[in-house]
Amino acid sequence: MTSLKLKSLLLTAALAVSGVVSAQTTLLNASYDVAREFYKDYNPAFVAHYKKTTGKDVKIDQAHGGSSAQARAVNDGLAADVVTMNTTTDIEFLAANGVVAKDWAKKFPHDASPTTSTMLFLVRNGNPKNIKDWEDLVKPGVQVIVVNPKTGGNGRYAYLAAWGSVREKGGTDAQAAEFVGKLYKNVPVLGKGGRDATAIFLQRNIGDVLITFESEVLSIDREFGQGKVDAVYPSTSIVAENPVAVVERTVAKKGTGELAKAYLDYLYSDEAQEIAAKHALRPRSEAVLKKHAALFKPLKQFTVAKYFGSLGEAQKAHFNDGGQFDKLYTPGAK
């Protein structure tokens, strides 16, 4: 073989390898609706950190939608390397189908949830309907905008927070069911995901109060301008964990396992926890949380486990077809 031919073959092989390498340096994060601003800031920070520590360049792509819709998309073949969701049930669904590891919650600290949030009320500027707590949401003439709990984790947490608010005051499950039924009678339209619910409230100007994640308050101020909404902290709300997992099915094919793990590991770093706080996601780092005490107002919070066992159990009892939500909510019914 001539040296020219050998050089040509080596060049072809090198190009083929570099093609594989460049394909492997793109990571796709399938995430929930209202996390998009956080990841817009987090991704460049991670890219810089990864370059500094490994010398390698990496590109991060994002896909956003309602948490459950995203989980279904990944299950159906969306080649995400990681999923960053707002409910554990969406990742459990992927684990049950062999898309992520069965023990995904043990792969990272804090049950693989680097941040948490909680559910607040957003009301129109000046709070014209004087909404202060959960019981105000069932008053006649109050229109509530909320995400469909069948399509987004935001909606599931809102439902469970409303149910738990009755239990926290000593009410029974029967009283909680009655209260939640009344609340959904005040819902003129269900959002598909968190961002869709915000658009219904602010762009279509429907509703008096939006139940959503604490983090959405800042996003709205940034996107629509300060003074459009006021945040109302109810007397009690729920701890909403934001779980993450490596999509084993994808990384096995692409060879991106090490990169995917590094991407999720870095969410626990001081820098990432600071970025989370900046976007009103409650950091796990006690030091960072303390530093931002003015932003994260003290709020009596209860866990999902306290009244529902787990999100998986809540899913079966409340949100699966024929569950409690279907019994309580009839579209268009008043």
From TrEMBL:
Record's GO cellular component terms: periplasmic space
Subcellular location per the Swiss-Prot or TrEMBL entry: Periplasm
Coiled coil: none
Signal peptide: 1-23
Keywords per UniProt: Periplasm, Signal, Transport
Main location: periplasm
Highest taxon, organism lineage: Bacteria
Pfam families linked to this entry: SBP_bac_11 (PF13531)
Biological process terms in GO annotation: sulfate transmembrane transport
CDD domains, sorted: PBP2_CysP (cd01005)
Alphabetized SUPFAM superfamilies for the sequence: Periplasmic binding protein-like II (SSF53850)
GO MF annotation: an example: molecular carrier activity
Assigned protein family: Belongs to the prokaryotic sulfate-binding protein family.
Record-given protein name: Sulfate transport system substrate-binding protein
Protein source organism: Simplicispira metamorpha
